[in-house]
Amino acid sequence: MFEIISDVTVIGWTQFEYGDAPMGVAFGKFVPAEAFAEFASGTPVSSQSSERARIWSDLKAMSPDGVALDGATVSVALVERSSVEGEADIEVAAEAIPYPLYAELFPHHVADYSARFPDHA
């Protein structure tokens, strides 16, 4: 699992179970840590937030092997959407992950893309 970090605090985790290999994007379900409640109540949301979605950006993701995805080249953000039932669904996305790093961290996304689109791989 990747750690999702605000400053130096781990606020949750994700497996980045989905991806778009050509776009350098990985995203997945966010599993909040105990520190997430304090983070969510005390951290301003992005200007891109709306009534239906709160967005926090400028986060970091750390792979289990210690590889950091941070604001230097990669955008990591949380998106919390409210559902009809009042439950919140939170997703984390990492965008603009450069190659070959993307292929190293997410070989399963690259393999899936290659299998689905063999003429574009």
What does this structure look like?
This protein is α+β, with helices and mostly antiparallel strands and 121 residues long. It has 3 helices and 10 strands. The protein has one domain. Helices cover 18% and strands 38% of the residues.
Topology:
Layout (H helix, E strand, L loop, with lengths): L1 E5 L2 E6 L3 E3 L4 E5 L1 E2 L3 H7 L10 E4 L3 E3 L5 E2 L5 E8 L5 E8 L5 H5 L1 H10 L5
Antiparallel strand pairs: 1-2, 1-7, 2-5, 3-4, 4-10, 6-9, 7-8, 9-10
Count of the separate structural domains: 1
Total number of strands = 10
Query: Which strand order does the major sheet show?
Result: 5-2-1-7-8
Tell me, rounded to a whole number, the average pLDDT.
92
Number of helices: 3
Give me the secondary-structure category.
alpha+beta
Sheet with most strands: 5 strands, antiparallel
Unreliable residue stretches: none
**Percentage of residues in strands:** 35-45%
